[in-house]
Design brief:
- The structure is a single chain.
- This protein is mainly alpha-helical.
- It has helices at residues 2-5, 9-34, 40-50, 78-84, 87-99, 101-109, 115-127, 129-132, 145-158, 161-172, 176-195, 207-239, 276-291, 308-315, 335-352, 354-374, 380-384, 391-399, 411-417, 444-459, and strands spanning 57-58, 63-64, 407-409, 424-426, 434-438, 463-469, 472-477.
- α7 (115-127) runs antiparallel to α15 (335-352) and α11 packs antiparallel against α12.
């Protein structure tokens, strides 16, 4: 029966939609990469993954990534980068991970919904703006989370506890903030399941399955709590000379003292919203973009409450960039409203009939399309911006740096060469042997911070030009 479901016409339609999304997003990603415009995070993860067996280190972070995040699951991408040595492989892998979510959600709900409704649910997942936007962004390990969460719930629903354990271990290796969420979600969901006398929101109606699921989720929560204790108590302090860097995104009032977060590995986050009213309006807008595209269906069941830990992590931040829809942080909560929507359709179908459920699903599809058009979180303008005018000159200037030398260059150029240059760094002028910068590079951070410092050091004779390719120059450290 399961084999027949996988080739249903509805599944074929959902798979075709997912493939179309993957082709379009993949093409945009390739164009973006070939224009040397991929962001710095992709370059960092390229170095980290290639050093999976050497402490997950990167030159950009000047040490182990464990100082910033606990993401051992990155090791699964090592074979991909070992073959390609290119951050483009990570970007395309992320597209595939996001494109697979609609198919996974179809498989999750198909035993509980008819084919037509399950197909609609697949297209809701395909068009849901907070998820669809991620395929065009920089690579982040959080892209694995939606599939893992859907897989966990599917394994529990079918009583596949071996798979549940495997997926739980993988989920706990995504990131430490995910582990914090799963500690709360696992414990609460487990206790609710163990104490329930009926099914929970259309799932786990069988008493024995409900009891088994309760134990499994409690175990998940306990495991997540153990990961948090191990990371914050031992792993992070052993790998960092500073406090946990993400705390900088939650500074209320005065900035943290220098002793709290000293020598951060990357630039500080953007300034918080200019006014309290502006920040409040942005948070309200964020919630509207999270739930209205789903026609408020998640609120029909209590499953949407499992999105609260992730939403709190995002909305409590004082950094405006965290609360911007379309960034990686939406993945901390986005799987749960989709799951709640799917389960809400089951409730509506059983209480109001199949026609009412189909109408609600169609409304959600229409709203997703509307939000993609009117409030597009994909930030297409970012991908359509012009590349540097003379990339050939940049290539020649980078070729002037000896293969085994440490050097720094513009963040986007760093990302482009991170897979082949292990000692590459981005947007610094200290701690390296060579620099490759273009005076006319169009970047606010470079103009404001790097360029003045570079010119001041050149004036003191610290650097000398070894190659000059138009406005792009290669500098060697003199002293």
């Amino acid at each position: 029966m399961q084999r027949r479901r996988l080739i249903e016409r509805g599944f074929v339609w959902v798979a075709a939609g997912s493939a179309s999304y993957a082709l379009v997003a993949g093409a945009l990603v390739v164009v973006h990469w070939n224009r040397w415009l991929a962001g710095v995070d992709t370059g960092i993860f390229t170095q980290v993954v290639l050093n999976s067996f050497h402490g997950f280190r990167s030159a950009f972070e000047n040490g182990s990534d464990f100082a910033v995040h606990f993401s051992p699951l990155l090791i699964v991408f090592y074979p991909l980068l070992a073959l390609t040595h290119s951050g483009l492989a990570l970007l395309l892998a992320q597209v595939v991970l996001i494109a697979a979510v609609p198919c996974a959600l179809y498989a999750l709900v198909r035993p509980h919904l008819d084919e037509a409704l399950a197909t609609r649910m697949g297209f809701i997942a395909l068009l849901y703006p907070p998820l669809a936007a991620i395929g065009l962004g920089d690579f982040h390990i959080l892209a694995c989370l939606p599939l893992l969460i859907i897989g966990l719930l599917g394994a529990a629903d079918r009583g596949r506890w071996g798979w549940f354990a495997v997926l739980a271990i993988a989920a706990l290796g995504v990131r430490e903030d995910v582990a914090l969420e799963l500690a709360v979600i696992g414990m609460i969901a487990g206790i609710v399941l163990l104490r329930a006398h009926r099914g929970i929101g259309t799932l786990f109606s069988d008493a024995q399955r409900r009891h088994e699921a309760g134990i499994a989720f409690v175990a998940l929560g306990a495991g997540a709590l153990g990961v948090c204790i191990a990371y914050f108590g031992f792993i992070q302090p052993a790998n960092a000379r500073y406090g946990w860097y993400p705390l900088l995104y939650y500074h209320y009032g005065a900035r943290p003292r220098s002793g709290v977060v000293a020598q951060p590995p990357v630039a500080p986050p953007p300034n918080p919203a200019a006014t309290p009213i502006g920040a409040a309006l942005q948070r309200i807008s964020y919630l509207i973009e999270a739930f209205v595209p789903l026609a408020l269906l998640p609120l029909v069941t209590r499953w949407w409450l499992l999105a609260l830990p992730g939403l709190i992590v995002v909305l409590a931040s004082t950094a405006q960039s965290i609360r911007t829809m379309g960034t990686q942080y939406s993945l901390l909560w986005a799987p749960w409203p989709l799951i709640a929507t799917a389960l809400a359709l089951i409730v509506v179908m059983s209480t109001a009939g199949e026609r009412a459920a189909a109408q609600r699903a169609s409304a959600a599809i229409a709203l997703c399309v509307l939000f993609l058009i009117a409030f597009n979180p994909m930030h297409v303008g970012y991908y359509l911006r012009a590349p540097y005018r003379d990339l050939a000159a940049a290539q020649r200037a980078l070729a002037c740096v000896p293969p085994d030398a440490s050097f720094a260059t513009h963040d986007e150029w760093f990302t482009h060469v991170a897979g082949t240059r292990a000692l590459a760094n981005g947007d610094v002028v200290d701690g390296v042997e060579y620099l490759v910068y273009a005076d006319d590079y169009n970047d606010a951070t470079f103009e404001r911070e790097i360029k003045p410092k570079l010119h001041a050091q050149i004036a003191t004779g610290r650097w000398r030009v070894t190659c000059s390719e138009g406005a792009v120059k290669t500098y060697q450290r003199v002293r």
